Each structure stands twice: as C-alpha cells, then as structure tokens.
Amino acid sequence: MSRFTLDTDDELLAYMRSVSLREPDVLARLREETAALPMARMQISPEQGQLMALLVRLIAARRCIEVGTFTGYSTLAVALAMPEGGRLLTCDRSEEWTTIARRYWRDAGVAERIELRLGPAVASLEAVLADGAAGQFDFAFIDADKTNYRRYCELMLELLRPGGLLLVDNVLWGGSVINPDKQDADTQAIRALNRWLHSEPRVDLSMIPIGDGLTIARKRE
Fold this sequence. Notes:
The chain is of the alpha/beta class. The chain has helices spanning 10-20, 25-35, 46-58, 73-81, 95-108, 121-130, 149-159, 185-199; strands at residues 63-67, 87-92, 114-118, 137-142, 160-169, 203-208, 214-219. The protein has a 7-stranded mixed sheet with strand order 3-2-1-4-5-7-6, sandwiched between helices. Helix 3 (46-58) runs parallel beside helix 4 and helix 4 runs parallel beside helix 5 (95-108).
C-alpha cells in the first residue's frame, strides 16, 4: 500500500505494457503510423485506449460520442469494444487527420459503426441535442481544443443517460496545472474545468494519472 501514485519511467512503463496491454494489430499499426506525424503528441497512450475499451464493455455501451478524433485511435478502441449494433459519433475539424482514421476503421471492419462529423464540435453537439438525443448516450470522450472543454462537458452531460460515463483527457496538462508561471488560455481552461467538475453535483468522478491525466465522471441517476 502507498499514499502516493508511483512514478512511471520508461522501463516500468514497458513492463506494464508487457503484462497488461492487449493491443489489436490494427491499433498498433495506427499508433505506429501516427507516431511519425508532426502532431503525434495528440494521440492517447495505448493503455488509455485499453482502459476506455474496458469501460465501454463494463457498461455495455451501445451509443458513444467523442470530441477530438485526430487519426482515430480512441475512436477505433471504443468501436472495437462496443457490442453488435453499437454506434459511435465522433467530431473533429480535420479532413487530413480523419482520412487516416477512416482507413483504419475500414481495415478493422468497424467503419459502419462510426459516424464522423467534420466542423466545430460545439455546433455538432448542439445539433445532436436539437435532434432529440438528450439522455441517449452511454459513453462520451473529450480530447480536443482546451478552451472549449467546459462547454463540451456541459453538452455531453446533457447527452449522457443517467449512469453514463464521461471521460476527459489532458486534465493534468503535462503538469502545467500546478505551475503558477503557466497562464496561457489552454492551461487556465483546464484548471477551471477541473475545479468545476470537482464541484459539479451531477457526477461522481475520479481523476487518474494515466497518459496526460484522465478524468472519469459518472452521471448520477
């Protein structure tokens, strides 16, 4: 037992992956291709993708929604974990990055489960709500522009059913959240979001130090 979260260096991370990670070949290939891109840092870690897939299976999530597709790793991890007939809506701005994503979704045989909406994500989520989807989603993931994080969360909480899960990425922001010298808009937005979620009565939550920090919130009944 420890009062502290263990620091994870490269050697310990490699061990953890060797005894825990069960990454399908299609996800490993996508991760490898993405690692060669200039914006590779935007991709989630494979252990985070596996955790997300486990949560999807635990709650038998059939309707999932995501903001921030990039090259589609998180989308694919979730789509592979959904039961037959599951549907995932993912929102992004980039035609370039999501073209890579679409290729791997097809390779994995799950492209028919995924709907991609290109454009500003706030407008996309508001349109989904306007179509009568409030309370219809089981699982939501946010990994996009940080200044809109609060608005994304507010909209996702409307879209989630009671008992549904909301996951928010980058909540530790490389440690910048505790650095008083970091006062840029993104860092301030993440700090504000973390404080808001901590006091939000509609959710149960836990922040875990996986990847760049991940908050898992359950919408209360």
